[in-house]
């Protein structure tokens, strides 16, 4: 399970925090660190703070965007010190660990996403996540140092991995043994873009005033936990709607041409 988990840090500004996060990961047996457009270098301070987790720093993957970091993940969880505009599925760290164990057992990669020291994750970034995790804190002092948040989450992952089979069975108890792998973030994105374009084509969505429609639909599909086959069905349906729309348009134009003669 622990090998399936990516720790993703977005725009981290302090080298020491990157080092301390690497140490927290290694203590708990995690090894895959992804830095999204880091604003700090992996310098001596990072190496010192990592204690002896330098290997994690050296093997860290650097990406330009969060989308690239999570493209192959079937479960993406964003950590946040406070709640945001539209409500989103919210878990505590222990529930997140059970969900992660379940996803790992199905063969998925899981991303745990951590925000900037100054401002956390943006709403747009949080919307890319299936669910959010809030580490319980005192109401009046809810923001942990980012590497300490990494520590708490990695500890919960470790605990769950030790009872891996059991917690996965518990999480599965109400469900079925799934027949298709969960769709990756990139596949879900492709489906949502296709859906948006189709909604514009059929005149349901005005691209000039989209409001929160796509964020809400993203939330719905992410909450459902769509698999690869379901993505194919949805996309097949959108393609059929687009073909139908195109042929209606052609028929319409032909009629108008006919009228003008
Ligand atoms: N001032 C920022 C706090 C950023 S703390 C804000 O209000 O959003 C930096 C990062 O540490 C956060 O983006 C999150 O990834 C993590 N973090 C800090 N406290 C947390 C908490 N209580 N629960 C979950 N994640 C937390």
Order of helices and strands: EHEHHEHEEHEHEHHHHH
The end-to-end distance, rounded to whole angstroms, is 70 Å
| Number of structural units classed as domains | 2
Give the fraction of residues assigned to helices: 40-55%
Name the shape in a single word.
elongated
Helix-strand category: alpha/beta
The strand line-up of the biggest sheet is: 3-2-1-6-4-7-5
Summarize the model shown.
With 261 residues, the protein is α/β, with parallel strands linked by helices. It has 11 helices and 7 strands. Strands 3-2-1-6-4-7-5 form a 7-stranded parallel β-sheet.
What would you say this structure looks like, in words?
The model has no long low-confidence stretch (mean pLDDT 92). This protein has helices at residues 15-28, 44-49, 54-58, 66-70, 93-105, 123-127, 146-162, 164-172, 185-201, 213-224, 228-260; strands spanning 5-10, 32-36, 61-63, 73-79, 90-91, 109-114, 131-133. By secondary structure, the protein is an alpha/beta fold. It folds into two domains: 2-170, SPOUT methyltransferase, trefoil knot domain (Alpha/beta knot, 3-Layer(aba) Sandwich); 185-260, Helicase, Ruva Protein, domain 3 (Orthogonal Bundle), CATH 1.10.8. The longest helix is centred in the C-terminal third of the chain and has 33 residues, at 228-260. It has eleven helices and seven strands. The protein is elongated and about 80 Å long. The chain has a seven-stranded parallel β-sheet. Strand 1, helix 1 (15-28) and strand 2 form a beta-alpha-beta unit. Helix 1 packs parallel to helix 7 and helix 5 (93-105) packs across helix 7. S-adenosyl-L-homocysteine binds at residues 79-82, 114-115, 117, 119-121, 133-135, 137, 142-144, 146, 149.
